[in-house]
Amino acid sequence: MEAEKGNKLTGDYTNKINKYAFACSVVASVISIIFGYDTGVMSGAMIFIEEDLKIDDMQIQVLAGILNICALVGALLAGRVSDYVGRRYTILLASIIFLLGSVLMGYGPNYPILLTGRCVAGIGVGFALMIAPVYSAEISSPSSRGFLTSLPELCISIGILSGYVSNYFFARLTLQVGWRIMLGLAAVPSLLLAFFILRLPESPRWLVMQGRLAEAKKILLLVSNSENEAQVRFSDIKLAAGIDENCTDDFVKVKNSNGQNIWKDLILRPSPPVRWMLLAAIGIHFFEHATGIEAVVLYGPRIFKKAGIHSKNKLLLAQVGTGITRIVFITIATLSLDKIGRRKLLLTSVGGMFFALVGLGLGLTIVEHSKEKLLWALSLCIGSTYTYVMFFSVGLAPITWVYSSEIFPLKLRAQGHSIGVAVNRLMNATISITFISIYKAITIGGAFFMFAGISVLALIFFFFFLPETRGRSLEEMEELFSKKSQPKIVGMGSSNQPTNNSCVQAQ
Known about the structure:
Number of strands: 0
Number of domains: 1
Order of helices and strands: HHHHHHHHHHHHHHHHHHHHH
Radius of gyration: 23 Å
Oligomer: single chain
């Protein structure tokens, strides 16, 4: 029966991306551009903030890392909020929080207010990182989910590059004005997003969880390539929510799980598949930042300065090159995820990162111990940095968010993904706050050798614990994580069975 469903739909959706679903994902992903801009612009702004506000290295590390500590809190809150008010209004709330944080940072008369604005923006980051991939995953079909769910990561890269470009051009303004415009500029897209987000439809999966079946079906017709595909997706979602697939009511009364039950099912007494999903989500988010990307994105100018570049303009221009490399290869990954699959790209990505990190560590060590400027060593450092960003962007960067947002069961998806995001932000904050101290303790070359060692552990973890999810519907993930055999790429039919034979959700 399941094979029949898949075969009936093959011609409808396999090679087509629904234009309406694509447009919705693009608008929702704008929140990720704002986050990326905040991350990228701070790398260059710190050069001028340090000079203007007369702050030391420890204060710089705190300023860099506080955004991610607050994002951890925001991510955990966002999971609960999105289950209560919906995915769309959670994106709206994130844009408003970003707006407030950007205004405070742009004003920034002193360090405490600047830090407060950075913290407020961090809460918005947590909301954005949690909700954008989940929303995109929930409106997309299995054949295009990798592409649509990786759009937020692509938008983060666009935002980071925009931040680097902003650094380069606004650096020409006076010291007191330049960095404040860099940071405050994020308020503009935040305001525009808050206006346009209300035109987006709600996630059909969230609507089914609320018992609003007629609304969910109407939206599924818009985000599917045919009425047949929409009907099969609708039936699978109802089954996952514990509602009979043959129910034709416009609205049914459902028993909403409270937060306590969700946390029990996720952490206290998870089923074996959920335990494996949680391990996979936590692991991939942990290794995304434990392998050192934040050191390159946030402290790139310091790395290039250690390698032998001293002009501020050249430092910022080199960082722009990093941003361009990132966006080019994330675009390639976005177009490849649904064709090549998650595992192949992920393993290739981490393997390449290892060799690039070894090259960067070697180049920085040689430069540090040389008494004269070595052009070849500088070239090795720059080339290794760009190679590292290339391999990171083509796999680990987008797949982290795609994978974590697609593997959890419907009722646990928002809060399960939020746990992964919280771990992600914790590791991001750890690297942001400690990187300067680490490289002062073990040398900057030694720091990147350390990241290379961690990338080996990441490769081993991904090989043994992350099954391929390409082509599987969201409702099939529990079956996939119930066994360690490689899944077959099938259609949209779900293996789940209804728990009762009525329109009322199973108790």
